[in-house]
Amino acid sequence: MKGQKLPAVQEQWETEQQRSMEERGRLLLSLQFLPPPEEGDVKDKEHARGGLCVGVRRCAHLAAMDVNGFSDPYVKTYLKPDVQKKSKHKTVVIKKTLNPEFNEEFFYEISFTELSSKTLEVTVWDYDLGKSNDFIGGVSLGCHSQGEAAQHWIDCLKNKGQRVERWHTLTNELPGSSLQE
User: Fold this and answer.
1) CATH code, domain carrying 159
2) Cα–Cα dist 93/134, whole Å
3) Cα–chain-centroid distance for residue 178?
4) pTM recorded for the entire structure
5) Which one of 17, 36, 138, 141 is least enclosed by Cβ atoms within 10 Å?
6) Which residues have a Cβ under 8 Å from the Cβ of 61 and sit 6 or more positions away?
7) What pLDDT, in 10s, does the model give residues 55-109?
8) Nearest to 171 by CA among 132, 151, 145
9) Contacts with 178 (C-beta within 8 Å, 6 or more apart), sequence order
10) Are the beta carbons of 140 and 124 closer than 8 angstroms?
11) Is residue 6 in some structural domain?
12) For residue 119, is it within any domain?
C-alpha cells in the first residue's frame, strides 16, 4: 500500500473532510449543572428545578469574515433536541475583532436525567448588516460528542454544582446539524 496513489475520489473526499475540520478559532466555555435547591431554600424561582448554566467567556483567533480582516462575532447556543424551539440564546455582537470577550451566561432549566440525553450546540457567527450572517464555526457538546467536547460534558455532569471551563476548537461543520441563521 505504501507509495501507491489514492484514487482521485478518495483523495477529494479526504481533502473535503480535512477542510470541514479546519480550525476556525477557539471558544472558551464554562458549564455548570446546578442541582435543584433544597425544599424551602428557593429564593430564585428561575432556578427552582435546577439546570445547566452555560458561560460564553471569549473567543480567540477567529476566522476573519469581513474585507477589513476582522469579524463582528456573536455566539448562539441551543440545547437539542429542541422540540418547542425555545432553547436559543444569543450573545451581543462585538464589532471588528477576532478575539471577542463576551462573559455572558445562559441558563437552561432542565433536570439532570433530561440533560444526559441532550446536546449543547454552540455556534459563532459574523454579523452582517443587510445580508445573511456568516457562520464562523461551532462545537457540539454532549454524550455523543468526541474528544475534548465529550470530556467537558462528562466533567460537567460528574461535578454537579462546580463550574467547569474549557477551550474548544471551532470547526466548519457540526455533526448532525443543519446550519441556518
Assistant:
1) 2.60.40.150
2) 13
3) 14
4) 0.81
5) 17
6) 23, 25, 26, 98, 99
7) 999 999 999 999 999 999 999 999 998 887 888 999 999 999 999 999 999 999 9
8) 145
9) none
10) no
11) no
12) yes
Among 180, 172, 170, 174, residue whose Cα is nearest residue 142: 174
Q: Yes or no: say if 74 and 123 are a contact pair by the CB < 8 Å rule.
A: no
Beta bridge partners of 137: 124
Say if 71 falls within a structural domain: yes
CA nearest to 77, candidates 41, 43, 29, 34: 29
DSSP-assigned letters across all residues of the chain: -TTPPPPHHHHHHHHHHHHHT----EEEEEEEEEPPPPTT----GGGTT-EEEEEEEEEESPPP-STTS-B-EEEEEEEES-TTS---EE-----SBSS-EEEEEEEEE--HHHHTT-EEEEEEEE--TTSPPEEEEEEEEETT--HHHHHHHHHHHHSTTS-EEEEEE-BS--TT-----
